[in-house]
Amino acid sequence: MRLATWNVNSIKVRLPQLLDWLAVARPDVLCLQELKTEEAKFPRAELLAAGYASAVNGQKTYNGVALLSRTPLAEVTVDIPGFADEQKRVVAATIGGVRVVCVYCPNGQAVGADKYQYKLRWFAALRGYLAEQLQRHPHLAVAGDFNVAPEDRDVHDPKAWEGQVHVSEPERSAWRALIALGLKDSFRLFEQPERIYSWWDYRMLGFRRNAGLRIDHILLSEPLARACSASTVDRAPRKLERPSDHAPVLAEVAAET
DNA sequence: ATGGCTACGATCCGTAGA
Asked: Catalytic site residues of A?
């Protein structure tokens, strides 16, 4: 199974690029974030024509997530059960025996802001949810935009970013609490080149300078991690005209798991 | 120099992203 995640920053604007990328990269499953679109306006028919069924948790203007799959999506659920939240950030489904949870974790805005407190509360709720999901589904993948750069090597300029939102210790601690559930960062299962990121600021020629952060991740439960043969970032879509500020992240997991 | 871009939904600016 080729599993991928991509924050498209508006499904409406990025649909042509998404369709092109699906045809070339041919993931089996793709987690999408920041649709910025309600479900009624989600391009379900266009994606179905391209060979992908979808499960959507949409929202107008902000947030919004979807799961795309070449094979049927079963047991679809939305949001984090028991966590009251107006923002549409989670959709999950079972695909080919793998439970896939697509997440768009809060940005946090700035350390100490109300949105930062919300981010930390949200991560605590996510941890509880994933603990329960792991009990039920040993073959669990959690993919999406986590808005956390786990280590300094995931940051283009750690000194400039020190203590800032996305790298602050409480955020990294929340990340490690997910890892402590028994989830593996698929990207770090392998030797990787240095300075690989998944997001670059639109401003300041961020992409050209490779001034980025690695904040989009695919977490795998231990049985899936053992079956994982590769994990990469595909920078190609970020080079196009009018790109998303995020690049897709992929993980290859052997089919028989 | 603490900005710089992009998307959205409201207008011709504010909110949000990271």
From this structure: 104, 145
